[in-house]
Amino acid sequence: MTKDNLHSWLDEALAPRDLPAGVTSRDLVMKAIEYKLPEMMPLSLVNPVRSDFFELAAHGWHERQQAPGSGIREMYTDEWMVRRKPSAGLFDQAQQHPLENLDSLEAYRYPEFPKNSTVEMQTAVITRAFESEKYIIGNDPVCLYDRVIDLAGLETAMLSPLRDGERFRELLDGLTDLTIRQIHAFGETGMVQGFMTWQDFGMQDRLAMNMDVFRSFYRPCLERMIEAAHSHGMHFIWHCCGAILDLIPDMIEMGVDVLQLDQPRLLGYEKLADKFGGKLCFWAALDTIWSVEKARSENELTEEISKMVNALGHFNGGLMLRHYPQPEDIGLSLDVQDIIAREFLKHSGM
After folding, report:
1. pLDDT tens digit sequence for 22-45
2. Is residue 79 assigned to a domain?
């Protein structure tokens, strides 16, 4: 991506939507999250670029694409000392883990995230997005659970709570401290309305761990993050994939404001509505597994979107719509993206 392309994307991302008089994109999102009957359903599209949100993560992804050296496809060691193999998509694969043995934790040094460093580099775009009256989402540079797997490897991440709980908790606490530093930095701008983390605790048929392990080790860390976000009046937004129905009651108890789902069909629209409707806001994509596992007709796509919206969209808010932000990574064709965009716009009230 060239600088011209980045500027073009930014112009599109910050362009105002066609909304009722006196209503801003920020208003819509705030009302949807807080069940205050928004005039229209908020949405985020990537094709075409049209959104009530401005995600700093998306800006970072586009910015990296035009950075010098972004096309290098060789093995490299990242700032976390994780050795990675480049992939064709967004996420490069971890090959070597610096904390595969937690005996190394004492000597390990976390990356430097000086106070406000991430925010200072984005001040101009945050200010512009705020003036454009978008709902601004600060991004989690750590992503606790997924980062633990990168640093320690899957086996160590899964077994350490049982065999080395004290040091494992020390690792989680260190990563949580880094996360909270960034939450405060975003909050202190006075311009960021939400903080979003990406932590996938679900597999396709069950949670990745039992709830006792989650509650003992991960929940206290997430509660600290949520408290930090709420202390600045920011919503806490959690992306979590997989079969996570058993986790959602804890999310609600912890104070999660928005659950961003890329696989809502896996969980069941009616189950989500019956059990959790009105208790936390869903920001939902058309199910990313279902939509690409085979060719889908236009009728199938439109009917599936209607089922999702009809089940989840009647709580005076509580539902927002989202194009999957990296459609090329999952093989989502332009034709399917176009149909999803058209139907999302229709259901949003346009």
Report:
1. 999 999 999 999 999 999 999 999
2. no
φ and ψ at 83, to 5 degrees? -85, 125
Nearest to 17 by CA among 61, 49, 46: 49
CATH number, domain of 343, equals 3.20.20.210
Judge whether 73 lies within some domain.
no
Helix (H/G/I), strand (E/B), else coil: 194: strand
Contact 308, 286 (CB under 8 A): yes
Whole-Å CA distances, 336 to 58, 154, 332, 340: 21, 34, 7, 6
In the chain, the number of structural domains is: 1
Range of the domain at 144: 3-66+99-348
Please check whether residue 76 lies inside any domain of the structure. no
How far apart CA 147 and CA 79 sit, in angstroms, is 12
**Quick one: what percent of the chain has pLDDT higher than 70?**
94
Q: Are 256 and 318 in contact (CB under 8 A)?
A: no
What kind and span of H or E run contains 304?
A: helix 298-312
What distance in Å separates the CA atoms of residue 245 and residue 269, rounded to the nearest whole number? Answer: 11
Instruction: Identify whether 82 is part of a domain.
Output: no
Which residue type is seen at 34?
E
Per-residue pLDDT of 206-236, as tens digits, reads 999 999 999 999 999 999 999 999 999 999 9
- List the helix and strand counts (H, then E) for the chain: 16, 12
Q: Distance between CA 228 and CA 139 in Å, rounded?
A: 14
Backbone angles phi, psi at 50, to 5 degrees: -160, 125
- Are the CB atoms for 148 and 214 separated by under 8 Å? no
Alpha carbon distances (Å) from 96 to 12, 35, 102, 162 = 39, 45, 14, 23
Close Cβ partners of 19 (under 8 Å, ≥ 6 residues apart): 25, 28, 39, 40
Look up tokens 């889908």; give the residue: 296
**Residue 67: per-residue pLDDT:** 57
